[in-house]
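Lab notebook, design round three. We kept the backbone fixed and only want residue identities now. Task for the bench partner: fill in a sequence for the structure below.
Input C-alpha cells:
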C-alpha cells in the first residue's frame, strides 16, 4: 500500500538530479563531491556505530572504521598543519557549539560579526551562541570595504573583554584581521576562534589566509562549501585545546558520527592534497571574473574599489531590480540558482526580503568552468534581470552552456573515467 510513497521519493530525486544537471548552481554554501566520495557515502559505513575513539570503541566491528578515521585525521593534520583534529561533529554549527562549550560558560561574552555584516546565524544569540548562553557583541564593521574595522574592534575588545574572539563569516569576501587583533586578544585573555566554513577549501589550497598561522587557536568548519567533501563538521586546533574540545564533542554533543561521511571526507582530504591548490586558485579567478563581468554589465557589485572579492563569493546589491527575493526567484525560473542575502545596511528583520544576492563560484569551478564561462554566466544573468528577457529563452541557453560541464574535476575521478556526476538512476 505504501510502496507508492517510496517511488514518489525516488521520482522526486530523479527530477531534482535532472534539474541540477541543467542548472548553473551558484549557491555559495554548496558543492558537488566526486564519485569516489559518493561511493563512500553510500557504503555500509552508513549503517554502523563507532562511539568512542579509534581503538577504544564501545561497539565491536570497527577495525576498518578505525583505519579510515585514523587516516582521515592524519590527512587533515597534514593538509591544515594542525596539531589536533576532531572529525566527529555532524555539522559546522555543532562544531561551533562544541567550541563554545569547550571555551566558555553561560554568561560569558563573545565577539563576532553581526548577521547583516556577514556573520553566520550560529554566531548569534538566537542560535548556537545563545544555546550556550553567550552574550554576543558585534565587531565594528566597515561597510565600504566589507571588512572588520580593526581600530574600532581593538577598542571594543578592551571594553567588553570577551572570552572568545570569533572570526569567519557567511558573507565572506576578504580575509579577516587575525594578525592585527591577536595582540589585543592576548591582552584581555581571549581565545581566538576562526569559523572557516565558507573558505576551508581555499585554506586547504593555500589561498585566502592561513588562520592557525595568523593567530587563531581553533578553526571550526563545515566541510562541503569550497571544501568539496560530504556534509559534516571539523575542528582544527592547537594541541593544548585537545582535551577540552574532545570532551565537548564526545560525549558532550555527539554520539555516533555518521561514518559514511567520515569515509567520504577521508577521500576528499586526499583529493585536496593532490588538487587543492589548483582548485582554490581557479575558484578565486572565477569569482573575480564573474564579479567583473557583472559589474561591466551594469550590476551594483559590492567592493568594486577593492577588487570585488578574494574568496569564492560575489555579492550584488539588487535593490534597484526589486531586491534579493525578486531577483533570486526570477533567476531560478531560468535555472540559475543562487540565494538572496542581507547586506550590511539591511535590518535583520529583512532576512526574507533583503537587498542583495550572493553568488559562489566553487561548484561551477568544480565541474570545469573557467573565466570565459563566467562571462557567459554574467551575460545570462543580465538577460534575465536587466534585459527582462523571457525566462524560457534564457533557460534554454543555460541548459546549453551547462551541457558541456558534467564531470567533476580536481578529483581522482578524472583518472578513472568517471561517469557524469548526476547520473544515478
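Proposed sequence:
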Amino acid at each position: 500500500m505504501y510502496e507508492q510513497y517510496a517511488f514518489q521519493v525516488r521520482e522526486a530525486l530523479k527530477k531534482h538530479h535532472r534539474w541540477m544537471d541543467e542548472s548553473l548552481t551558484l549557491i555559495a554554501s554548496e558543492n558537488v563531491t566526486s564519485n569516489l566520495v559518493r561511493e563512500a557515502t553510500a557504503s555500509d559505513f552508513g549503517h554502523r556505530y563507532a562511539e568512542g575513539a579509534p581503538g577504544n570503541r564501545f561497539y565491536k566491528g570497527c577495525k576498518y572504521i578505525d583505519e579510515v578515521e585514523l587516516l582521515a585525521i592524519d590527512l587533515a593534520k597534514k593538509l591544515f598543519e594542525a596539531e589536533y583534529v576532531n572529525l566527529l561533529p555532524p555539522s559546522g554549527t555543532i562544531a561551533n557549539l562544541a567550541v563554545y562549550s569547550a571555551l566558555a560558560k553561560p554568561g560569558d561574552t563573545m565577539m563576532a560579526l553581526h548577521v547583516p555584516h556577514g556573520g553566520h546565524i550560529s554566531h548569534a544569540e538566537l542560535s548556537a551562541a545563545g544555546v550556550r548562553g553567550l552574550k554576543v557583541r558585534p565587531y565594528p564593521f566597515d561597510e565600504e570595504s566589507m571588512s572588520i574595522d580593526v581600530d574600532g574592534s581593538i577598542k571594543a575588545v578592551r571594553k567588553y573583554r570577551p572570552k572568545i574572539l570569533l572570526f569567519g563569516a557567511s558573507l565572506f569576501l576578504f580575509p579577516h584581521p587575525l594578525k592585527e587583533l591577536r595582540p589585543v586578544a592576548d591582552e584581555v585573555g581571549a581565545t581566538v576562534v576562526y569559523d572557516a566554513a565558507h573558505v576551508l577549501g581555499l585554506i586547504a589550497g593555500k589561498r585566502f589566509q592561513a588562520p592557525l598561522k595568523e593567530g587563531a587557536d581553533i578553526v571550526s568548519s563545515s566541510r562541503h562549501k569550497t571544501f568539496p567533501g560530504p556534509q559534516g563538521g571539523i575542528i582544527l586546533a592547537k594541541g593544548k585545546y585537545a582535551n577540552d574540545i574532545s570532551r565537548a564533542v564526545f560525549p558532550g554533543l555527539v554520539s555516533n558520527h555518521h561514518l559514511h561521511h567520515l569515509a567520504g571526507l577521508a577521500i576528499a582530504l586526499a583529493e585536496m592534497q593532490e588538487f587543492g591548490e589548483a582548485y582554490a586558485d581557479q575558484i578565486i579567478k572565477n569569482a573575480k571574473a564573474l564579479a567583473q563581468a557583472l559589474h561591466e554589465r551594469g550590476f551594483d557589485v559590492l567592493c568594486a574599489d577593492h577588487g570585488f572579492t578574494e574568496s569564492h563569493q560575489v555579492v550584488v546589491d539588487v535593490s534597484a531590480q526589486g531586491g534579493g527575493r525578486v531577483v533570486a526567484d526570477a533567476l531560478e525560473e531560468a535555472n540559475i540558482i543562487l540565494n538572496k542575502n542581507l547586506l550590511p545596511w539591511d535590518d535583520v528583520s529583512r532576512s526574507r526580503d533583503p537587498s542583495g544576492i550572493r553568488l559562489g563560484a566553487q561548484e561551477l569551478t568544480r565541474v570545469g568552468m573557467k573565466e570565459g564561462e563566467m562571462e557567459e554566466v554574467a551575460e545570462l544573468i543580465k538577460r534575465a534581470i536587466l534585459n527582462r528577457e523571457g525566462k524560457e529563452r534564457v533557460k534554454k541557453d543555460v541548459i546549453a552552456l551547462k551541457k558541456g560541464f558534467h564531470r567533476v574535476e580536481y578529483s581522482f575521478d578524472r583518472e578513472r573515467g568517471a561517469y557524469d556526476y548526476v547520473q544515478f538512476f
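Keep this in mind before ordering anything: The chain has two domains: 38-269, 276-416.
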